[in-house]
C-alpha cells in the first residue's frame, strides 16, 4: 500500500467469464453473484485468459516506451477536436486539485471525413497517436498493441453486460443495446513515484476521489499498487451526473486498497450503470495514491454510444444523454485544454441538444 494511507486491504472475488454468455442456469447464477459482489464490495476481479495476458503485456510495453519519450514529443499528442491524447502530470484537475497522473487517453479515432467530425460533434475527432517508436527492438507503434488490447477488453465488456442483464433479471439487450458503436475508451496511465513529482499537486495523491462516467471500468495494474475504492454504503448517496462526486469522502475512513494480483482485471461500475439501475448498482468511488516506485496502469471504459439517451431499466420516468455527461466531465477535468477552448469558441456544446446527437431507441 502507498505510504501514508490507512485502508483495509481488499480480498477480491474472482470470476472467470464464459466465452459465450447464454441463457443457462449457470450463467444466470454467475450474473447474480457478480451483482451481489458489486453491491457489497463495489469491485470484483475477472481472470485474464492467455490471449488477454499477451495483449496486455504488449500494450504495457508500448505504454512504457511512450512515457519514456521526451516531454515535447509527448506534449505534441493533442487534438483540438478530440480529448484523446496526452495529459501531462499535474494537468488534470479533480475537485480543484491537480492530479499527478500522466495519461494517454484513447478515444474513438475518427478521420476528418467522418460525418460526425464534419458536423462538429463535441469530442469527435482523430486520436493523436505518437509517431512510430524510433527503434524496432519490440513494439514499433503505440497504436497497434493498444487497439488490439482494447478489442479484447471490449469483448469482456459485452460478456459482462450480458451477465449483468441475467443477474438483474432484465431482458436480453436491455444493456447491450446501448453499446452499439459504443464510446469505449481507454486511459493509459503512469504515476510517478511519490518523491519524484513536479510539485504541482498534493503530496502522495495520484488522482483525487471520483466516479467514472459510463457503464463498466475494466482495469489492470502492474505490481506496484496504488488504487483505493469505496464500497457502497447506504448512508452515502451521490449522483455524479447531477452534482459532481469528485472529492467525495477523499479523506474519510472506509476506503479499501486494491492489491495488485497477477493475471486478473478489476471491474467496477460507472455513473450510467447507477442511473439505469436507479442505485441498485452504484458507481464506485475510487482514488489513487502515489507509491515509492513509478506505476503503470490501464483503465478501459465500456460505454454507451455517444448519442445514447438512457432510461431507467424499470421503465420509470427520466432520460439521460450520455454524450452530454461525457462532455461535461471532460470539460470539467480539462478546463484549459485546446479541445475545451475550441468547443466553447465554436459553440459545439449547443449541438448536444440537437436531435441527430440523441438516439432514443
Ligand atoms: Fe477513474
UniProtKB/TrEMBL annotation:
Residue ranges occupied by any Fe2OG dioxygenase domain in the UniProt entry: 182-304
Domain of life: Eukaryota
Gene Ontology process terms (BP): small molecule biosynthetic process
InterPro entries named in the record: DIOX_N (IPR026992), IPNS-like_FE2OG_OXY (IPR044861), IPNS-like_sf (IPR027443), Iron_ascorbate_oxido_reductase (IPR050231), Oxoglu/Fe-dep_dioxygenase_dom (IPR005123)
Record keywords, A-Z: Iron, Metal-binding, Oxidoreductase
Pfam entry (one): DIOX_N
GO molecular function: metal ion binding; oxidoreductase activity
UniProt similarity note: Belongs to the iron/ascorbate-dependent oxidoreductase family.
Name of this chain's protein: Fe2OG dioxygenase domain-containing protein
Organism, as annotated: Penicilliopsis zonata CBS 506.65
Species lineage: Eukaryota, Fungi, Dikarya, Ascomycota, Pezizomycotina
Amino acid at each position: 500500500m502507498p505510504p501514508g494511507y490507512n485502508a483495509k486491504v481488499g480480498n477480491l472475488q474472482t470470476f472467470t467469464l464464459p466465452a459465450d454468455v447464454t441463457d443457462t442456469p449457470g450463467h444466470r447464477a454467475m450474473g447474480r453473484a457478480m451483482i451481489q459482489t458489486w453491491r457489497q464490495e463495489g469491485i470484483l476481479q475477472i481472470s485474464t485468459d492467455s490471449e488477454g495476458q499477451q495483449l496486455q503485456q504488449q500494450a504495457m510495453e508500448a505504454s512504457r516506451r511512450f512515457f519514456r519519450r521526451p516531454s515535447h514529443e509527448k506534449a505534441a499528442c493533442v487534438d483540438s477536436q478530440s480529448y484523446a491524447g496526452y495529459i501531462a502530470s499535474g494537468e488534470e484537475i479533480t475537485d480543484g486539485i491537480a492530479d499527478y497522473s500522466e495519461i494517454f487517453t484513447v478515444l474513438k479515432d475518427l478521420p476528418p471525413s467522418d460525418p460526425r467530425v464534419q458536423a462538429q460533434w463535441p469530442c469527435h475527432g482523430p486520436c493523436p497517436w505518437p509517431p512510430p517508436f524510433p527503434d524496432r527492438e519490440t513494439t514499433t507503434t503505440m497504436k497497434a498493441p493498444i487497439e488490439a488490447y482494447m478489442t479484447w477488453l471490449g469483448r469482456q465488456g459485452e460478456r459482462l453486460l450480458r451477465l449483468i442483464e441475467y443477474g438483474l433479471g432484465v431482458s436480453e439487450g436491455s444493456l447491450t443495446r446501448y453499446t452499439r458503436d459504443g464510446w469505449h475508451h481507454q486511459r493509459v496511465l503512469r504515476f510517478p513515484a511519490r518523491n519524484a513529482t513536479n510539485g504541482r499537486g498534493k503530496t502522495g495523491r495520484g488522482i483525487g476521489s471520483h466516479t467514472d462516467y459510463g457503464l463498466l471500468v475494466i482495469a489492470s495494474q502492474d505490481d506496484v499498487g496504488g488504487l483505493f475504492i469505496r464500497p457502497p454504503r447506504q448512508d452515502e448517496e451521490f449522483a455524479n451526473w447531477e452534482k459532481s462526486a469528485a472529492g467525495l469522502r477523499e479523506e474519510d475512513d472506509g476506503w479499501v486498497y486494491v492489491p495488485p494480483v497477477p493475471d486478473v482485471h478489476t471491474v467496477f461500475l460507472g455513473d450510467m450503470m447507477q442511473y439505469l439501475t436507479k442505485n441498485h448498482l452504484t458507481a464506485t468511488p475510487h482514488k489513487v495514491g502515489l507509491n515509492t516506485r513509478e506505476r503503470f496502469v490501464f483503465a478501459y471504459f465500456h460505454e454507451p454510444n455517444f448519442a445514447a439517451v438512457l432510461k431507467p431499466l424499470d421503465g420509470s420516468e427520466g432520460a439521460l444523454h450520455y454524450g452530454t455527461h461525457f462532455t461535461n466531465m471532460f470539460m470539467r477535468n480539462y478546463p484549459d485544454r485546446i479541445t475545451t477552448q475550441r468547443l466553447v469558441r465554436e459553440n459545439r456544446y449547443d449541438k448536444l441538444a440537437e436531435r441527430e446527437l440523441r438516439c432514443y431507441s
